[in-house]
Amino acid sequence: MKYMMFVCTDTEPDTDKTPEPDIEAWVTENDANGRRLDGHELAPVSAATTVRVRGGELLVSDGPFAETKEVVVGFDLLECADLDEAIEVARTHPMARAGRIELRPFADLG
């Protein structure tokens, strides 16, 4: 089952002082076992563009919604047997401590 894993900042990161896991080791391990299909860090929020259409009118603005405190900083596309395995992969990502991870399965449109 495919999951999109959104890597996000958080206003309340973990206060545990033990060293965070190494992101390169996380990528290498999950690439090697086929659980991580793709992923990438995103450009800073200052490079974001928000597009909306309201009443037939195109509205384009710089950045995310103005009051946003937590932002998506990267993503990984996972292939896991089930949600439990996806949670285990997310749990070991360094941003699970420094930020937050959102897992979302791909919709079955068939």
Automatic annotation (TrEMBL):
Family statement: Belongs to the YciI family.
Pfam family, one: YCII
YCII-related domain boundaries: 20-105
Ranges in a coiled coil: none
Protein name per the record: YciI family protein
